[in-house]
Amino acid sequence: MRGGVILRFVALLGLAAPLCDMSRAAAQAGPHDRVPHQAWSFEGPLGRFDLSAVQRGYAVYAQVCSACHGMKSMTYGDLAATGLTMEQVGRIAATQQVPGGVDAQGDPVTRAATPADHFRDPFANPAAAAAANNGVAPPDQSRLALVYPGGPDRIYAVLTGYREPPAAYRPSHAGAVYNPYASGREIAMPPPLRDGQVVYTDGTPATTAQEARDVTTFLAWVAQPHLEARHRLGAQVVLYLLFLAVLAFLLKRRLWSDVH
Amino acid sequence: MTDAGSRDRPDEQEKAGLVPWLDARLPVVSAFRREYVDYRTPRNLNGLWNFGAILTVVLLVMLATGIFLAVNYTPTAAGAFASIEAIDRQLPSGWLLRSIHVTGASMFLAALYIHLFRGLYYGSYKAPREVLWLTGLVLLAMVMLTAFAGYVLPWGQMSYWGADVAGKAVDAIPGVGPWLEHFLQGGDAPGDVSLHRFFILHMVLAFAVLGVVGIHVAALHVTGSNNPLGIEPRGAGDTLPFHPYYTSKDALGLILFALLFAVVVFFLPDVVFEAENFRPANPLHTPADIEPEWYFLPFYGILQSVPSKFGGLLASVGAILVLFLVPWLDRSPIRSARFRPLYRACMGVLVVCFVLLGFVGRHHAQGGWMIAGRIAVVYYFAHFLVLLPLSARTERGIVLPDGIAGAGRRGA
After folding, report:
1. Which of A175, A182, A212, B191 could pair with A159 as two cysteines, CB 3.0-4.6 Å apart?
2. pLDDT in tens, B272-308
3. Gap from B12 CA to chain A (nearest CA, Å)
4. Omega before A139 cis (within 30°)?
5. Using an 8 Å Cβ cutoff, are A206 and A198 in contact?
6. How close, in Å, is residue A235 to chain B by CA atoms?
């Protein structure tokens, strides 16, 4: 019996192994200052998104980030899940011009986007993106909050972390900017946000910190748009299975009562 | 219409109805009754015997979700990543299907390892269950290949570079290596052709696994289950009908397993989704840390602990091949490790070494991990090739229980 217990324990250890040192990914790449933790509503097992912040964050993305960063996995229709009506989504899509095939002469034309269209890519191809940005192509933001080491905390820290460089700092390449939270404390993106840069329709004061917070929330939502549905469904499924497990346990015990 | 005929044979008229009619022509109903209702099963099976049923159900879940993913998937280097993103974002409940499928792969392998080590511990591979053991190992190899092919399909960074590392490992085989690598990949590096091949391989193997599971279960029902005491049932008192005893026990095990499954799917997806794989494959940018899925880590650890590349490949393939010899390496007539003190201690060390090799693989066998890895590799092979054959000699004067029922009463 004891061997069985040990075997079971070791098997559990094996199962738990991938859970260990998960933060390792955050430690790689160049050195940077320690990233302060922010409180986000989408953290934790029951986290959910503040949809008004996600909508404001889309405004920041549309008015600032989208000039350089693509988000090609997203369609305009996906924005309906931020609480917008399909009519509002249709209006947002219509403000964007996307490639629309060719005209009768065979020349490429553009057309207004529809909700089924993917977000417009700011550059025709990665080479054009790199050429326009001092040789560093701005990363696609569809999953940035998941793949960027440090996640939303670090995105927020980088966006609000631009400051006067120390005297010893020399840019390693043209266009590089000092930022203590970027890897190697240097980033190719010039400070993207400043106070009052974005017009919020809900009257929220557009400070740099507010813009950074909103766009980080938006990026986190884009990276995991089904987080809230996942958590809600998960709670229901787990509760149901717990209830079922109790019933199955009672049934099993009763059926086996004449054996033991 | 059959009235005239039926009146001529009154004995058949008594058993009228569709079910007896079908059963007389194709005995599915009576076969089901024989194999899943009345089927005699040892009365002392513990929770570790639940994993066979769990694996069957997880396989069916994988096939069901896999078919829906496949019809929405594009097996081209240009379209694969985007089609996975579309499944995750735009396909209704696509995120759920994919999450279940990806989590299912990990849960399947976890259950498979438990099933395998249970068989080793209780001697389930011994006569007359050798064919059962061998078909199980064939399944292990097929499932690993299926899982690997499936992991390449999303065509993220880890998919691409994982395929690349596997290609390079094949390349290390002397002589045929480079040819074989080229044949499998359809080029010098993973690309369109390899993706298409892996997709077909993944689908074909998945259904082939289902077929071999059928053979595995058929072999089980010929010999019957082994049990924690490792002695054959000596009569009706030692066994129970499968239903309702083991149907109720398997149901409880399945629900508990589903609970764990659901917690990972809904609350801990980071455990099974590698963040780096959300970046599209980029042949020009090697990730800092290429690492296989956790279920390959012990074999990756063996691969990296052995100094020579080809030697490492031989050792990690050998680690599975040696399992095929176990029924003939083990000369002891006693099955269960409960009555084999030395073998039981050795099994504990084996499991520790296997988990340790996983960590070695995770740390790329660097520094102290290299030494630990080499010791674990040596133990792994010594366990099967030296300790297992010799342990039989230490087992003298061991008295096995008379019967399962009697042993149960004494133990309680």
Report:
1. A212
2. 999 999 999 999 999 988 889 999 999 999 999 999 9
3. 36
4. no
5. yes
6. 8
Q: Has residue B351 been placed in a domain? A: yes
Q: Is B196 annotated as a binding residue?
A: no
Classify residue B92: in a domain, yes or no.
yes
Paired tokens of B170: 């094949």
A244:B255 CB<8 A: yes
Beta strands in B121-233 (DSSP E): none
Residue B225 annotated among the catalytic residues of the structure:
yes
pLDDT tier at B365 (50, 70, 90 boundaries)? confident
Could you tell me which of B231, B223, B403, B227 has the C-alpha nearest to residue B334?
Answer: B231
Domain stop point among B235, B268, B290:
B290
CATH code of the domain covering residue B261: 1.20.810.10
Q: Are the beta carbons of B337 and B347 closer than 8 angstroms? A: yes
Q: Between B89, B266, B358, which is nearest A237 by CB?
A: B266
Tracing tokens 């007359």 back to the chain, one arrives at: B128
Q: Which amino acid is at B156?
A: G
The count of domains in chain B is 2
Residue B38, class by beta-carbon neighbours within 10 Å (0-12 exposed, 13-18 middle, 19+ buried)?
A: exposed
Residue A147 has pLDDT above 90, yes or no: yes
Q: Which domain holds residue B70?
A: 32-290
Q: Are residues B99 and B139 in the same domain?
A: yes
- Smallest Cβ–Cβ distance between B266 and the set A29, A74, A231 belongs to A231
